[in-house]
DNA sequence: CAGGATCCATTTTGATACTG
DNA sequence: CAGTATCAAAATGGATCCTG
């Protein structure tokens, strides 16, 4: 049961491709949106503020390919398609939620830092 | 001590900008590289496989702006610049490491899923 | 050595229109 | 409704040259 001795820090490690996909804001938000349960395409779109239909369908497709979400299309008119986290996808939720929580919990500190940095930058340019 | 009632799922929430930065493979790897202790620019570059000088300097600059890393430049020739995680940055390490660990731990499952998906795709195109 | 500047190729994202 | 196709715009990434 040996794992390869390399890791994501190695450019050619296969897991780098997986990290590249999950270390992405859209992926993070879609996984969080689907955590409570299966949703229709349009419902995900409402849940993830600001995402375009194109980006959503493309990202969902990649996540389906990676086995993170499953897709169920009902043969109806108009169409009805539902997405759900797979067991693999559910195992991803906790890390993703932790990342989002960090962003929310530290946004004030980050903003203060940005303001200070930009001020230093300004007076450096002015001299 | 009330937090705003919105969150990263809301497009206009400030924390969205923070999530966008940390939900990024380069950020993840740089934070992990710096976890053991301060490193010089070139050392980070070696630690993070495949990163270019341009991307590294740009990303470090953003992370410095956000207060995640601190930068120390020694007035020498040739230059010597060291980077270190701030306390804020150290608080980010755990979530980042969890994400990287997920990528590594599940890469085989992901790859199997990708292969199966691509095969289904192929036979769908062939018919 | 640590970067900034520049030029380009690639990728990502977004609007819009269209269809089963 | 859930996409796909298309075009344009913007962001990202890489390679190279240059400097203190």
UniProtKB/TrEMBL annotation, chains A, B:
Keyword Transcription: yes
Keyword field contains Transmembrane helix: no
GO MF annotation list: DNA binding
CDD domains, A to Z: HTH_ARSR (cd00090)
Domain HTH hxlR-type stretches: 13-111
Coiled-coil segments on the chain, per record: none
Keyword terms: DNA-binding, Transcription, Transcription regulation
Protein name: Transcriptional regulator
Annotated source species: Galactobacter caseinivorans
């Amino acid at each position: 049961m040996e794992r390869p001795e390399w890791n994501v820090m190695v450019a050619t490690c296969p897991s780098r491709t997986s990290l590249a996909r999950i270390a992405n804001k859209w992926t993070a938000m879609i996984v969080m949106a689907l955590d409570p349960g299966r949703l229709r395409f349009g419902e995900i779109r409402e849940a993830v503020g600001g995402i375009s239909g194109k980006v959503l369908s493309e990202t969902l497709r990649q996540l389906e390919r990676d086995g993170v979400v499953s897709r169920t299309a009902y043969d109806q008119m108009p169409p009805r398609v539902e997405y759900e986290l797979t067991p693999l996808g559910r195992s991803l939720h906790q890390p993703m939620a932790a990342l989002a929580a960090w962003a929310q919990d530290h946004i004030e500190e980050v903003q203060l830092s940005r303001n200070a940095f930009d001020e230093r930058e300004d007076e450096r340019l002015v001299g």
